[in-house]
Write a structure and sequence with these properties.
Layout (H helix, E strand, L loop, with lengths): L1 E7 L2 H4 L12 H21 L4 H9 L5 E7 L9 H5 L3 E5 L9 H13 L2 E5 L6 H7 L6 E12 L13 E11 L9 E8 L4 E10 L2 E6 L12 H14 L21
Parallel strand pairs: 1-2, 1-3, 3-4, 4-9
Antiparallel strand pairs: 5-6, 5-7, 7-8, 8-9
Helix pairs in contact: 5-6
C-alpha cells in the first residue's frame, strides 16, 4: 500500500483568505485580492462541484494500491504536521496564490523527507512552491498566459509514467505555460505541451534528489476541467507509483561539516 497525501492550498476554492495568511498586503491590495478570490471560487465550483482535489482524490481512490489522505493549508500546522509527513510515502502538492505562506521550516522538512526516500509530485502552479524550488535549486519561473488549446505530447512512451497514454492528449483549454522554464535539466522529459499560440513547454519532468523521486506535471489549472480527463488522472496515478519509495534511508542526512579522514 502506498500512503499518498494530497496537499492542496484550497484558498481559491474557499473564496477567502484570512488576513494573517497574506501579512505583506496593504488594505487596498487585500480588498482587491479578496474580491478576486470570491469570483474565482464560483468558477471553480462550476468546473469541479466536488472540488479540484476532491475530483482527483475520487479518481485516485479507485486504485486499490493507494491509501489517500487529503489536507490543505488551513489545517493545523499548514496541513502537514510531523505525524502526517512521517507517514507519507508520496506527497502530491497543488499550490498557487499562497506559495509564500508556507514557512521555510516546513518546506525544508519536505526536502529532507524527499532526500530520505519520499516521492514528491508537484502539480501545475506548484512550480513556484518552496519545496519544488528548494529541491531543484532554481526559481521555477516560466512564461504564462490565460487558457488556450493544449496538445500534450508523449515524448517518452517507454517510461513507466507514460504506460497506456496515447501519442498525445488534446485539452480544449489549459493555462498556457511556456519556455523558458527555469529548472535544472530533467532526468526524464516525458511530456511536452504545445499551444495554439506556438509555445512549447516541458510539462512532465522527473528528477532524483537523494533517495527520493520527483515528478512535475503541468496540466491542472483550477478553472479548466482537466482533472476529469481519464488520461490526466492515469498519468498522475502512474506518477505516484513511479515516485513511491524504493529505499528508505531514515538516517540519511547532509551535514554541512564533516571530519577529514585520518591520514594513512
Amino acid at each position: 500500500m502506498i500512503r499518498v497525501t494530497l496537499w492542496y492550498e484550497y484558498a481559491q476554492e474557499l473564496g477567502e483568505v484570512r488576513r494573517e495568511f497574506v501579512p505583506g498586503m496593504d488594505d487596498e491590495t487585500y480588498a482587491g485580492f479578496a474580491e478576486f478570490m470570491k469570483s474565482r471560487a464560483e468558477k471553480i465550483r462550476q468546473v469541479y462541484p466536488k472540488g479540484l482535489m476532491g475530483t482527483l482524490a475520487e479518481a485516485l481512490s479507485k486504485d486499490p494500491e493507494l491509501e489517500i489522505t487529503m489536507t490543505n493549508i488551513f489545517e493545523p500546522e499548514y496541513g502537514l504536521p510531523d505525524e502526517l509527513l512521517e507517514k507519507t510515502d508520496v506527497l502530491v502538492w497543488w499550490s498557487h496564490v499562497l506559495q509564500e505562506t508556507i514557512p521555510d521550516s516546513l518546506a525544508m522538512k519536505i526536502v529532507q523527507r524527499v532526500q530520505k526516500g519520499m516521492g514528491f509530485v508537484p502539480l501545475h502552479s506548484a512550480h513556484k512552491s518552496k519545496p519544488f524550488m528548494y529541491l531543484l535549486g532554481t526559481s521555477g519561473c516560466l512564461k504564462w498566459r490565460e487558457d488556450d488549446f493544449c496538445r500534450v505530447w508523449t515524448a517518452m512512451p517507454s517510461h513507466p509514467i507514460a504506460q497506456g497514454i496515447p501519442e498525445y492528449i488534446e485539452l480544449e483549454e489549459e493555462e498556457m505555460y511556456g519556455e523558458p522554464f527555469d529548472i535544472p535539466r530533467p532526468d526524464d522529459n516525458i511530456f511536452i505541451s504545445w499551444y495554439r499560440g506556438g509555445e512549447l513547454f516541458r510539462s512532465g519532468c522527473t528528477w532524483t534528489r537523494g533517495y527520493g523521486r520527483i515528478f512535475y506535471f503541468q496540466p491542472g489549472h483550477e478553472t479548466s476541467p482537466n482533472y476529469h480527463n481519464e488520461y490526466i488522472q492515469k498519468i498522475i496515478d502512474q506518477g505516484i507509483h513511479w515516485t513511491a519509495p524504493r529505499v528508505w534511508r531514515k538516517d540519511f542526512d547532509c551535514p554541512n561539516i564533516v571530519d577529514a579522514p585520518e591520514k594513512r
